[in-house]
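seq as requested:
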Amino acid sequence: LADETVICWGNPACGGDCSMVQDQLKNVQSIQATSGAFAALADGLVVTWGNPEYGGDSTQVQDQLWNVQTVQSTKAAFAALSADGFVIAWGDPGFGGDSTGVQSQLQTVQEIASNDLAFAAILCNGTVVTWGFPQYGGDSSAVQAQLRNVQSIQSTAAAFAAILADETVICWGTPAYGGDCSMVQDQLKNVQSIKATDRAFAALRANGVVVTWGDPEYGGDSTQVQEKICSM
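struct tokens:
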């Protein structure tokens, strides 16, 4: 609300009842959600409620959740980025709720991206650290050497696409969801921005040309309208 308090409704088991934390929901700046829980950011602190298995219980990491700047979420986990560049994750481990395997690398983080089951963090040096379900992009080892000078990351439900400083693009994750852009790699130059549906990406180049890949039924094939797009 305008006074920075929160009102909830809906299925109580999925976060529709916040009465247990109502007194903590003051000075709230933003709210993120998984499929069954909420996380509110208030004065650098995080307040969670809803299904514990979906991130609704942050008690195990609560003492680390201070000076938080942003919170991102998958379908069943949260990741909080603190002002000093550290990341704390909680929720279902299979959905990215456990970052212990890469915790030593999660320093000087400047931005976090997420899809349904994985997280990708951009570090200040332009490299990327990923965790979560491997096939959904939680494992970026196949392209790790190419993930340098990363400027931004977009995601479908199961893949990531990163724009590098030289305006080229690197993709990873489930191929059917856009995790494989090899068929259009030679076209992915001078890319200014990327948008995504659940299973496809569309990249806008500096010359106004749009390049698409991923599931054709989700927008991954723009061949039938490409001529119209180029004339816009």
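The longest strand covers residues 28-33.
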